[in-house]
Amino acid sequence: MFARSTQFGVVTVINATMSVSDSTIFNNVVGVQAQAGTTIRLTGNNIFDNGANLSCASAGQVLSAGNNAIAGGGGGCPPSGTFLLQ
Question: What are phi and psi of 72, to 5 degrees?
Answer without folding.
Answer: 65, -170
